[in-house]
């Protein structure tokens, strides 16, 4: 239902925006645990979908590195106006924003993206999300599902989150908006983050590349492969323990690249669980857990990464353990707590 719904919403957006200068949504991509097959809490699952945005006619997006953090890079999306005089002569469907008088543009054409969803020259996350949420509310009424399902938008400044319910059924979906880095599977996205981040900041996200990695593994693994079941079980145990589900997912992805897939049958479940726990303990002891996508020379070549990604220095997800003895001591305690659950 969720993928079909997103496809229909994107189609309606495309039709409604064909003569405007708002970002153009592309086909949504399901990401995260619900689409990778290991969601730990079936009753509380949130379906995360990433919606790539393309620039409207007469505009271009340029990604500018904002701050290079240890674990995640931040970008700004600069919006540039392009000359469309040639297109104007050929198709007569729009006036050039650069070479027509402002008064004529105001009278005959919708405003450029710079005057709607930008702060200065940069695409604003919060303005973009607020505008798309309004579009979702309108587009929903045009879908046949609206006759049977009830949609409730949930307030969020950096994503479009909503709940759909019918009788005793309900599920939650969260749309993250993103701009692609070149033609790769790495994006900069609007995903929620710490309070206080500027609204023109977009965070680098590896979610699409990771989702494709899980599909890549599923095509090659045995039909009764236990890798998702291992991850599902252990992330369920993590409730109330300090390790993030992303850290555990990173451990499993590393092991899927090193332990032959022929050793992930259902009968190998117990041994693979032990491998995961041993890898996690070793990472805690050495205070190092390397990022799986960045700096991984063995990452599948069929998944497109920006130039230099595979040979870059891999960020350490456990950098905080190396810099804080208290954090390391607590991680050891939490690991022992996880073992005894």
UniProtKB/TrEMBL annotation:
One of its GO terms (cellular component) is membrane. It is found in: Membrane. It comes from the Eukaryota. It is a single-pass type I membrane protein. InterPro entries: ITPRIP-like, Mab-21_HhH/H2TH-like, MAB21L/cGLR. Keywords: Membrane, Signal, Transmembrane, Transmembrane helix. Residues 243-293 form the Mab-21-like HhH/H2TH-like domain. Belongs to the ITPRIP family. This is IPIL1 protein. It comes from Vidua macroura.
């Amino acid at each position: 239902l969720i993928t079909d719904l997103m496809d229909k919403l994107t189609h309606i957006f495309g039709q409604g925006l064909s003569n405007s200068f708002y970002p153009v949504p592309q086909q949504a991509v399901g990401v995260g645990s619900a689409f990778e097959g290991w969601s730990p809490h079936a009753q509380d699952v949130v379906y995360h979908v990433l919606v790539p945005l393309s620039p409207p006619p007469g505009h271009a997006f340029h990604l500018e590195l904002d701050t290079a953090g240890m674990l995640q890079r931040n970008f700004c999306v600069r919006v540039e106006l392009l000359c469309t005089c040639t297109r104007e002569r050929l198709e007569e469907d729009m006036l050039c924003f650069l070479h027509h008088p402002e008064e004529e543009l105001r009278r005959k054409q919708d405003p450029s993206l710079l005057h709607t969803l930008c702060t200065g020259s940069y695409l604003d996350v919060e303005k973009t999300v607020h505008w798309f949420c309004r579009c979702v509310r309108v587009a929903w009424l045009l879908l046949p599902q609206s006759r049977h399902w009830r949609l409730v938008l949930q307030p969020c400044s950096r994503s479009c989150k909503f709940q759909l319910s019918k009788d005793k059924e309900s599920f939650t979906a969260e749309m993250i908006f993103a701009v692609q880095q070149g033609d790769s599977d790495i994006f900069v996205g609007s995903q929620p983050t710490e309070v206080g981040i500027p609204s023109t900041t977009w965070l680098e996200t590896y979610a699409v590349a990771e989702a494709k990695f899980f599909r890549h593994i599923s095509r090659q693994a045995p039909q009764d492969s236990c890798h998702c079941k291992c991850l599902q079980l252990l992330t369920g145990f993590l409730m109330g323990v300090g390790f993030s589900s992303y850290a555990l997912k990173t451990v499993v992805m590393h092991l899927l690249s090193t332990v032959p897939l022929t050793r992930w049958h259902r009968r190998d479940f117990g041994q693979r669980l032990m491998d995961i726990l041993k890898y996690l303990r070793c990472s805690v002891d050495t205070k190092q857990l390397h990022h799986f996508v960045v700096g991984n020379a063995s990452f599948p070549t069929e998944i497109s990464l920006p130039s230099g990604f595979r040979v870059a220095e891999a960020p350490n997800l456990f950098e905080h353990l190396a810099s804080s003895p208290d954090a390391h001591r607590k991680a050891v305690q939490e690991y022992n707590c996880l073992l005894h659950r």
